[in-house]
Each structure stands twice: as structure tokens, then as C-alpha cells.
Amino acid sequence: MTTQQNLYMLLLGCKPPGRHTEQHDIYFGIGNDLKSLVPGIIAFWPQAAPKIHIDAWREVTVVGNYRISIATRVAAAVQQNQPRVFFINLGGYKPNEFDEFHYRMLVVAHTREAAVKQAKETAFFKHSQSAHVDDKYGIDVDDIYEIEDILPPAMNKAYSVIVTPLAAPAPEDKMSMGYFKLNEL
Questions:
Q1: Pfam families, from UniProt (predicted)?
Q2: Any alpha helices (H) in 18-62, and if so which ranges?
Q3: How far apart, in whole angstroms, are the C-alpha atoms of residue 161 and residue 7?
Q4: Is the peptide bond before 95 cis (omega within 30 degrees of 0)?
Q5: What is the pTM of this model?
Q6: Residues 55/12, Cβ–Cβ less than 8 Å
Q7: What CATH number does the domain located at 6-184 have?
Q8: What are the distances in angstroms from CA 177 to CA 10, 11, 34, 106?
Q9: Domain map of the chain by residue range?
């Protein structure tokens, strides 16, 4: 019996040795549940073990007006003009706040340029002082990723992310927030 594979977006946190504050990173993985992602999470951030934890997670099924699903790479018929799912990290500053605030988002677009255009339409971008796509030189492709490009290599080789237009708007994906230890999944 085959189990349904899903795309997950996780906010990982830990306080690596030698750091003064908790650090965070985003992890994308494909699995049938969170527990199935644990080996990939540890391989993704080995310096964080054993203190790595999940601060937030989302099973990605809807982005904008598109259904997101997973198919085996062999079964997927990827078309040249199919829209792609992009992960974008926006950064911004607020007066008298000693921090850089981030807004992480998923968008569906045909090109990186179209994805950036969508990001610049967010309230975060419009209302943050000095909001920017987090980079050094304007728009940096290191901070705008096609999801398939940042999946762990074995997952990228085995699966395709399928984007299908929805006939009618669907509810947003549920986001789970909290402190989830990997050994408690």
C-alpha cells in the first residue's frame, strides 16, 4: 500500500554551539508525515543536533489559486510552461527596533521575476521600512528559490511538485506553531 506523499515547509530552530541566540532556517521536505522528515532534517542541519526543533510547520497543499501535490518523478509530465512554486524571504526594518524582521512566503509564478513582483505587493513589503528581498545586490537568486531546487537531493530526484490551477478559491493551509522536539514526533 502506497502512502500519500506531501510537501512540507518547516521553520527549524536551535541554538548551535558558540551562538548567543536561537538561530532559524527553513526546511522543505516530502513525506507522508512530519516523523518521516526527521532523517532529512538532521542531515540538513547536522550542527544543530541534538537541540534542533520545529517552531512552525505547514503541509503545503494550496498556494494562491493553485493546488500543490506530489508525484513520482517518473509519473510526472512536467510541461515547459507550467507555473512553479517559489519560496521568498523578505526582510525589513522598523524604526527603533533592534532586529531585522522577515516575512516568508510561497508564491506560484512562471518566472522568478513574476514571483518577486508578487512579493512586492505584500503588505509587509509596502509597510516595512527598508523592506527588501533579503540580499546584497537587489534581487539575489540565493534568496528566491524554486521549491524543487531546494529539496534534499534524493527527494528532488524521486519526486516532482505538481501545480494545478483551482476552479474556485480554496482555504489557506493550516500553519502549526509551537515548539516541537524531533524525538517527540
A1: DUF1543 (PF07566)
A2: 38-44
A3: 8
A4: no
A5: 0.87
A6: yes
A7: 3.10.20.10
A8: 10, 9, 14, 17
A9: 6-184
